[in-house]
Write a structure and sequence with these properties.
Length: 266
């Protein structure tokens, strides 16, 4: 009964999305409490991105099988974070939902709160079938196909990469979850808290953590300091956001970089 209710509530994959494919075996449904039964040691990698539940099926055609799973996350940032964590960073992505990647034996994409992955068991190139399933499923999913707004707030010049860090941003436990963008000359970070008061509390803990900080004029409050591991750093609070720059290289001023980031926030 519980399984039936979960299946009814979940967005389910469908083997009929591509011609010649049919479902093989029973449908699967997992929630946070039992995902480890399916993912073995990989379950934690889903849970830290806000995993809610997963619906899956195995599809078959001519002796070839595809494992087709749809994970529902707590929010769009979590879904896109799952995609960026699992994509091949050395290969291009494409516009399927917020972002997708189709490889010879695996396709992944994120749209709204959903993260979709389809894996082929054949040794041959299955990208044609994988693309057919991915593009058809993308049309069925609700939610935004626009990249998370936070990505546009980071400067694009000399940006090497950007990703959602699901816990301990910059290796600091007080920065629970946020985006980090890597540049040629350092890394920018941005954390969204539940309220301006919560953000103020986080910044206060950062100041206490490092000590010897110097105030700077950015947002509602800000400081700068130099750390053994994070190098030259400036951190600020603006509304619900805590952000800044760390490991800033020679020739750049941490406070100036942080100020430009703060000015881009809504």
């Amino acid at each position: 009964m519980i399984l039936a209710l979960l299946l009814a509530a979940a967005v389910a994959p469908d083997c009929s999305l591509a011609p010649g494919w049919k479902q093989h075996g029973a449908a699967r449904i997992f929630v946070a409490d039992n995902l480890f039964e399916y993912m073995n040691g990989n379950a934690e990698g889903y849970l830290i991105y806000g995993f809610q539940r997963m619906a899956g099926v195995t599809c078959e055609s001519g002796g070839e099988t595809l494992v087709f799973d749809i994970s529902e996350m707590a929010d769009e940032d979590g879904a896109y974070g799952m995609f960026t964590a699992n994509r091949d960073p050395n290969l291009p992505t494409e516009k399927i939902g917020m972002g997708g990647q189709v490889l010879p034996r695996r396709a992944t994409f994120a749209k709204g709160r959903y993260y979709v992955e389809i894996a082929a068991n054949a040794e041959k190139d299955s990208s044609q079938a994988l693309r057919a399933f991915a593009t058809a499923m993308e049309k069925r999913l609700t939610g935004s196909a626009t990249l998370p707004a936070a990505l546009s707030w980071f400067p694009a010049e000399q940006q090497q990469s950007i990703r959602l860090v699901p816990e301990s941003v910059l290796g600091l436990r007080v920065l629970k979850r946020g985006y980090v963008a890597q540049y040629d000359y350092g890394k920018a970070f941005l954390v969204l808290e539940a309220s301006p008061e919560a953000a103020a509390g986080v910044l206060a803990k950062l100041k206490a953590r490092f000590g010897g900080t110097g105030p700077v004029d950015i947002g509602e409050e800000a400081f700068q300091f130099e750390d053994k591991y994070l190098g030259r750093l400036a951190a600020f609070r603006k509304g619900r956001y805590v952000g800044g720059w760390a490991n800033v290289g020679a020739g750049q001023e941490p406070a100036a970089l942080a100020r430009r980031l703060a000015e881009r926030l809504p």
